[in-house]
From TrEMBL:
Name this protein carries in UniProt: Alpha/beta fold hydrolase
Keywords: Hydrolase
Organism name: Kitasatospora cinereorecta
Entry keyword Hydrolase: yes
PANTHER family (UniProt xref): AB HYDROLASE-1 DOMAIN-CONTAINING PROTEIN-RELATED, ESTERASE_LIPASE_THIOESTERASE DOMAIN-CONTAINING PROTEIN
GO molecular function annotations of the record: hydrolase activity
């Protein structure tokens, strides 16, 4: 199965470097995506352009692909499922939940000179980054790509209720499946509350398992592909 991999904020397709061979060894075609505004110098890239790139990757797949989205990009994966509800086999959300219609995509940190730079590790102290050694932290920070303002502050637009029929797997790294279920029940993730098929799987890692636990993450993604 084609598995389309979408990194979260500040990440491009190279973030999946260690996951890709593990997935291919398990019999899948891993396709890490690098989107407009991710290292191409286009600070004017928009959320709509990034969505169009994901949809184009879905359309280019020979069969229904599995979408995998990490962190803030869980919303981008959900937008793609909304755009192509009949063309994706399922959606895996790693360490995040999709925003609802009308919300800002990822307006979380300061915008400077038209982009949202990586803010350093301070905001991610604790379970998010506890499994990252200093070498990994330095590498991730050095490779971090500032997010174009029109991506971070883009407005989420959802139009097709058939997205709720797309099977979803929530991978829970720095939080537990029990916490995820509680947040959804409390109304913190209204889009997932309406989804018809949601599985929860635990992963003993921090927020960036593609760096700290790539083999285990690949195994979970392959299992999700088998279910799809």
């Amino acid at each position: 199965m084609d598995i389309l991999l979408i990194g979260g904020l500040w990440l491009d397709g190279t973030a999946w470097h260690a996951v890709t061979p593990a997935l291919e060894a398990l019999g899948h075609r891993a396709r890490p995506l690098t989107l407009p505004g991710q290292g191409d110098g286009r600070t004017s890239a928009t959320l709509d352009e990034q969505l169009a790139a994901v949809v184009a990757a879905v359309d280019a797949s020979a069969e229904k692909p599995l979408l995998v989205a990490h962190s803030a990009a869980c919303t981008l994966g959900w937008l793609a499922a909304d755009a192509r509800p009949d063309a994706v086999a399922g959606l895996v959300l790693i360490g995040g939940f999709p925003h609802a219609d009308g919300q800002a995509y990822a307006d979380f940190f300061e915008i400077r000179d038209g982009v949202m730079p990586f803010p350093g590790w301070g905001p991610f102290a604790g379970p998010d980054s506890a499994d990252l050694d200093e070498e990994l932290r330095s590498r991730i920070a050095a490779d971090a790509i500032p997010v174009p303002e029109q991506v971070a502050r883009g407005t989420v637009r959802l139009t097709d209720p058939r997205r709720y029929g797309v099977p979803v797997t929530v991978v829970c790294p720095e939080f537990t499946p029990e916490q995820a279920r509680a947040w959804i029940a409390a109304g913190d993730a209204p889009e997932l509350a309406r989804a018809e098929h949601v599985d929860f799987v635990d992963l003993d890692s921090g927020h960036w398992p593609m760096f700290s636990a790539p083999a285990e993450l690949a195994r979970l993604l392959a299992a999700a592909a088998s279910r799809a």
